[in-house]
Specification:
single chain, alpha/beta, Tyrosyl-Transfer RNA Synthetase, Structural Genomics Hypothetical 15.5 Kd Protein In mrcA-pckA Intergenic Region, Chain A, 3 domains, 6-stranded mixed sheet, 5-stranded mixed sheet, 15 strands, globular
Length: 411
């Protein structure tokens, strides 16, 4: 590879497929180009499943290219059927706008805004999709697509093969995404669309549309979809999604998520989700054991999202709790009302009401299996009452298993 961006993409394992790698390499080695990734705004935050794409945007900037972040105010109204077994929940435009505003703040933390040459461009595709004339769109854009080809794409084929309904609205999604690339090529001279491998069909459509209508070359590049060594989807835990927003998922829990990576995932995750240079990673592998590498991964991944101070704070909290058995002020905290403590609260109710467990039956099983501790003392009675005697200086620690700890504070 002549292009330093594509070379590092390959070294880190980010590179999956490209529509014309040789030609793209030649262009990117000679000049800076704009490239875009689209994100649907179905929630107020992205989760760790989107992190690889964000790391690629950071890498793009590192090598002097300009990222375009497309926040899909228009396409989110439709919903991407890729990888979905059913139709997404239809969101209202007001809710989507609120989500876009929140997600934009995330990118402001993760991308470089100081260098004007590579400063990210934010676009909302509702600005053009919301103004479409349906007849004109069908004549100019719809005429470029054949049903024969559209029915071969995985996002459509997998749903039809499983006899799961696919709405006409969703079926149109791939055309709208292709049109996004076409508009960005016109407006921003965007030569490259990036995305996960599940987006390959949609990306190729955009490349073909630009070639047919504008008679110009554009390129598509995908990264592999990340799964855990267990085969589970990246970013899903028993608590739900690992959000990239501290209000939804604490920096301490985020640090723990990476620290708890399976041994088989650590080396590739260090390449995927940290800024450590490849040659330095090779040296680290030789010097450190797997548990030390997990701490490096947790520290570096947390530092990228939350900064060095919160990363070190999370590590200290973990050390205090796991190594020395301390109750740390930095643990994820939950406020408990003074009145509840005064009258007494059953342990089962506390575990469910404060979302440590999803149900009383789950809480009972955890107690039966010696999985619940109050201030490091094993709970053996499911009828235990929590009251003032369990608090010291208005603080109480509840532990679920070896890795989940919560600090309850009387308010």
């Amino acid at each position: 590879m002549k292009s330093t961006f594509l070379r590092e993409m390959q070294e880190r394992g980010y590179l999956n497929q490209c529509t014309d790698l040789e030609k793209l390499d030649s262009i990117m080695s000679n000049k800076s180009i704009p490239a875009y990734i689209g994100f649907d705004c179905t929630a107020s935050s992205l989760h760790v499943g989107s992190l690889l794409q964000i790391m690629i945007l950071r890498l793009l900037q590192k090598h002097g290219h300009k990222p375009i972040v497309l926040l899909g105010g228009g396409t989110t109204l439709i919903g991407d059927p890729s990888g979905k077994s059913s139709t997404r929940k239809i969101l209202k435009q007001k809710e989507i706008k609120k989500n876009i505003s929140s997600i934009k703040k995330l990118f402001e933390k993760l991308l470089n805004f100081k260098n004007k040459k590579i400063k990210p461009i934010f676009v909302d595709n509702y600005s053009w999709l919301g103004k479409l004339n349906y007849i004109d769109f069908l004549r100019k854009i719809g005429s470029q697509f054949t049903l024969n080809k559209m029915l071969t794409f995985d996002s459509v084929k997998s749903r039809l093969d499983r006899e799961q309904s696919l709405s006409y609205m969703e079926f149109n999604y791939m055309i709208l995404q292709a049109f996004d690339f076409y508009k960005l090529f016109e407006r921003e001279k965007c030569l490259l669309q990036l995305g996960g491998s599940d987006q390959w069909g949609n990306i190729v459509n955009g490349v073909d549309l630009i070639r047919r209508i504008l008679k110009k070359d554009a390129f598509g590049l995908t990264s592999p979809l990340i799964t855990l060594s267990s085969g589970a989807k990246m970013g899903k835990t028993e608590k739900g999604a690992v959000w990239l927003n501290e209000k939804l998922f604490s920096s301490y829990d985020y640090w723990q998520f990476w620290r708890n990576s399976d041994d088989k995932d650590v080396h590739r995750f260090l390449k995927f989700f940290t800024d450590i240079k490849i040659e330095e990673l090779e040296k680290l592998k030789e010097k450190k054991n797997i548990n030390d590498l997990k701490i490096v991964l947790a520290n570096e991944a947390t530092k990228i999202l939350y900064g060095k101070m919160k990363s070190l704070k999370a590590e200290k909290t973990a050390t205090d709790v796991f190594k020395f058995g301390k109750t740390s002020e930095n643990l994820p905290s939950k406020n408990i009302h003074n009145k509840d403590v005064e009258k007494g609260l059953k342990i089962l109710e506390l575990l469910v009401d404060y979302e440590i467990m999803s149900s009383k039956s789950e809480a009972r099983r955890a107690i039966k299996n010696n999985g619940i501790k109050v201030n490091d003392l094993l709970v053996t009675d499911e009828n235990m009452i929590i009251n003032y005697s369990n608090f010291e200086d208005k603080n109480m620690k509840i532990s679920f298993g070896k890795k989940k700890h919560f600090l309850f504070k009387i308010t």
